[in-house]
Design brief:
22% of the residues lie in helices and 38% in strands. The chain is α+β, with helices and mostly antiparallel strands and 136 residues long. Strands 1, 2, 3, 4 and 5 form a 5-stranded antiparallel sheet that branches. The chain has a 4-stranded antiparallel sheet with strand order 6-7-8-9. The protein is globular and about 35 Å long.
Length: 136
């Protein structure tokens, strides 16, 4: 279990390092590509401009969902697939914890605070990155 936790931490740190490298390479718009979801059917992109992040979900490299929410760059921002299902989790310091789930082939965004989602579905790597999520 400890080995698995350390692997998740390493993956998270590599993701953060990748973000910083991307910022050094491109100034205006950047695209950050994720690993795949649990089923390997989906991945995500984080589009970045000078003020905001935007999330795009892909299936076989085709866009299936574009989130219209602006996630401010000046706030903490974490994104991770849930390890056991195709649920994409996003934490942003300005708007809180959200998750994206595909229902009847349509991706939808839900606020965790308003949902009945099981607390154990929050990825452990996200709980480690945002200490106040550990209570869930």
């Amino acid at each position: 279990m400890k080995f698995k936790k350390n692997v998740y931490k390493m993956i998270f740190m590599l993701s953060i390092f990748n973000i910083f490298l991307q910022k050094l390479i491109a100034q205006e718009i950047e695209w950050l590509v994720s690993d795949n979801s649990a089923s390997n059917k989906f991945s995500y992109l984080v589009e970045e401009n000078s003020e905001y992040y935007h999330i795009i979900i892909l299936e076989n490299n085709n866009i299936v969902f574009k989130d219209n929410q602006n996630y401010r760059k000046r706030d903490r921002f974490f994104i991770s697939w849930y390890q056991n299902d195709d649920i994409l989790w996003v934490y942003s310091g300005d708007i809180g914890l959200y998750y994206f789930i595909c229902e009847n082939n349509i991706w939808k965004r839900y606020a965790f605070a308003d949902s009945t989602m099981n607390n154990t579905n929050i990825p452990m790597i996200m709980k480690e990155a945002v200490p106040r999520l550990k209570k869930y």
